[in-house]
Specification:
The chain has 185 residues and is α+β, with helices and mostly antiparallel strands. It has helices spanning 2-17, 84-105, 138-143, 175-179; strands at 42-45, 48-52, 68-72, 75-78, 112-115, 121-127. The chain is elongated.
């Protein structure tokens, strides 16, 4: 009887230990593959590794530093290179477009374009970048005060543009879809 009980318990232990269920959540099968959409203008760089350190030839045979393998996680990078000067021009363009709109809404019509070349109204009015902004004039400074950092957040009391206010809007037009004869979008 003891041998039968021992044999039965061994069979139960072996039977439960050989099952494929490991107690982990494995999901629903078959599951459709999902791929993350690349953000606009960005390239996906997959995960990889490289050897960091001296090359394989150690001329003085000092062996003071050894090379090691470093893993880099996957990331996104911009499709095009941009210089500091190009980025500065972009920031100034955004700053000036916000200032032109604020001055136009304050009643200075020269900072906006309300009609096109055929005297048709433009809605919403466009920004007139041909008009210069006199940032040092007192009345312009009062209108544009919302663009600067509050007094309690200033560094050494310098009057600087608040970068959180530099929000821009852009439009994307798919020219291939627009040029199609059968417009079924």
């Amino acid at each position: 009887m003891k041998k039968l009980l021992l044999l039965g318990s061994v069979i139960v232990v072996l039977g439960t230990s050989c099952s494929k269920n490991t107690g982990e959540l494995v999901g629903v099968h078959p599951r459709a593959e999902w791929f993350d959409v690349d953000p606009f203008g960005m390239l996906y760089i997959p995960m990889g590794s490289y050897n960091m350190g001296p090359s394989d030839e150690d001329i003085p045979y000092s062996h003071t530093t050894k090379s090691k393998t470093v893993s880099v996680q996957a990331f996104y990078i911009d499709q095009t290179e941009i210089s500091n000067n190009e980025y500065r021009q972009f920031v100034y363009w955004v700053r000036d477009s916000i200032a032109h709109r604020a001055l136009f809404e304050d009643g200075r019509a020269e900072h906006g374009v309300e009609t096109d070349d055929f005297d048709q109204p433009v809605d919403p009015p466009l920004v007139n970048f041909d008009e210069d902004i006199a940032y040092d004039e007192q009345d312009v400074r009062e209108v544009l005060e919302f663009m600067y950092l509050p007094v309690e957040e200033r560094y050494y009391r310098r009057r600087e543009i608040d970068s959180r206010k530099l929000n821009y809007e852009y439009y994307w037009i798919n020219l291939r879809m627009a040029a199609q004869k059968n417009k079924s979008f």
